[in-house]
Amino acid sequence: xxxxxxxxxxxxxxxxxxxxxxxxxxxxxxxxxxxxxxxxxxxxxxxxxxxxxxxxxxxxxxxxxxxxxxxxxxxxxxxxxxxxxxxxxxxxxxxxxxxxxxxxxxxxxxxxxxxxxxxxxxxxxxxxxxxxxxxxxxxxxxxxxxxxxxxxxxxxxxxxxxxxxxxxxxxxxxxxxxxxxxxxxxxxxxxxxxxxxxxxxxxxxxxxxxxxxxxxxxxxxxxxxxxxxxxxxxxxxxxxxxxxxxxxxxxxxxxxxxxxxxxxxxxxxxxxxxxxxxxxxxxxxxxxxxxxxxxxxxxxxxxxxxxxxxxxxxxxxxxxxxxxxxxxxxxxxxxxxxxxxxxxxxxxxxxxxxxxxxxxxxxxxxxxxxxxxxxxxxxxxxxxxxxxxxxxxxxxxxxxxxxxxxxxxxxxxxxxxxxxxxxxxxxxxxxxxxxxxxxxxxxxxxxxxxxxxxxxxxxxxxxxxxxxxxxxxxxxxxxxxxxxxxxxxxxxxxxxxxxxxxxxxxxxxxxxxxxxxxxxxxxxxxxxxxxxxxxxxxxxxxxxxxxxxxxxxxxxxxxxxxxxxxxxxxxxxxxxxxxxxxxxxxxxxxxxxxxxxxxxxxxxxxxxxxxxxxxxxxxxxxxxxxxxxxxxxxxxxxxxxxxxxxxx
Length: 648
Description:
Layout: H1 19-32, H2 42-49, H3 54-95, H4 100-115, E1 119-126, E2 131-138, H5 143-146, E3 149-151, H6 155-163, E4 167-169, H7 182-191, E5 195-203, E6 206-215, H8 223-255, H9 260-285, H10 290-301, E7 304-308, H11 315-324, E8 328-330, E9 333-340, E10 343-351, H12 358-397, H13 404-413, E11 422-429, H14 436-456, E12 460-464, E13 467-473, H15 480-495, E14 499-503, H16 516-533, E15 540-542, H17 549-552, H18 559-577, H19 581-590, H20 595-602, H21 606-620, H22 627-642
Parallel strand pairs: 14-15
Antiparallel strand pairs: 1-2, 1-6, 2-3, 4-5, 5-6, 7-10, 8-9, 9-10, 11-13, 11-14, 12-13
Helix pairs in contact: 1-3, 2-3, 3-4, 3-8, 3-9, 3-12, 4-8, 9-10, 9-12, 10-12, 14-15, 18-22, 19-20, 20-21
């Protein structure tokens, strides 16, 4: 293309910094109006059709990729917000429960909408007949399917009802894990279902039914979708439980007309329970935290309620609450396990309240359920932020040629400042796991702890090369060595295992030097390897601690063997006799191999120095003061000191 045909906004030698912002403009407009992913190809296609320059098209392509990543992140957040909003709305419906069928229908509708399935349905167990039957369906078109009854263990739903575990199949008729019967297969075939997911409805450790989501095509249900449907199942079970409670209350009112005082007390308890449900719903909708939930329940139950970590709660009572799905009494307290998807997240503890009304007990249990939802929401947001931090550090480590302004903007959104002086840390667990699964779990714990440390220090963290990389700002008056040792101590405490940390020398101007972080990471890895070779597991050190030894320690070298071969007899002699020959050697070399200056340094008589050096000669050989031997002995002394007790 000739110069006369170059668009004014395209790059030229005179305006080399201009095109990036103008190339982003059409994609920002697409993001602003929520356009589909296909629409992001249009600006590039239009530019090619207009015969725009190659450089302009490359800029558009880069802007398109970045915009699609932003769109994907926004879509993910909108989806998570929609999921949480639906759960919170359902929890609010439960708090004001009046019609069980309406609540169950709303749960099934929301489950189908959020999972994007063709059909969702719910079955309840019939204890009298020993089977499970369809109660609510959404999206079903086959009458025979809507009237199905499944025996325990029959079909996917019967297996879920029998085992109390979720099951999923991407092709029902090809799956031989389930007991296929003519009636069930006919109903499923009439409905045209292929992929089915079923989760149990639990009250305590009893299964009362099954919640399903299904598609009329092959589909793989993700773990997050299984967990989401499980949350809806928990709410459905709670709705049924609450409805049963209301039914019991109405029956009691009808049967105990003469016991007006008892009825009034019971009604007051129920109103209090409804009040706490409303309070909890409001807390959730207004962004309250777990401690706000505990405070609200404390007011309603007239007692001290607190959230505690699982490790701080009574283990036996906590496990009993988790297994039964109810709050349990422990001495003068009540313990309600906070559980999500089978994972124990903590406990709500009601202090000094040994006598607890059943409705108040259920109120404590509902609060534990709401607490688990809040913790899951907080974890989801934290994991999203950790992924974004990791992506930015990945880009810096890979030394990609990126716009410094965009890097600074991305870092600023994470409260990080790439113009500040930083230290790159390489962290690694030193314990050996029993198997690959345990090793992967340990690495995940290390990454999680490192991400938390980076977030609190306005830094970045990412998992890489079997360990974790951190980029932390260097505070005024701090040193790379201090940062490394502090990180080793903090990470080791967090994961309850020894964590070794190597640090680079301080680096500056990271946004403008895309190769600076990669080079600093290589340096921190060398320090990490050096610590391993020296046997300093669980310690932290920086390049400044090793000097030229850092180069010698790179690779797989037998440091212990070298020290033993060179000065091992002197070390053994000192240990056996309680003498101080090693210290005398250090002083002798430091004083330029002058006995007169050495005796002043050691504050001993010159004859004492001579006697000690004579003993060293007998141990190391007559040529120990030759130039070649002197260099080896001094290096061995330095390595022996470095591999000695850690200096914190």
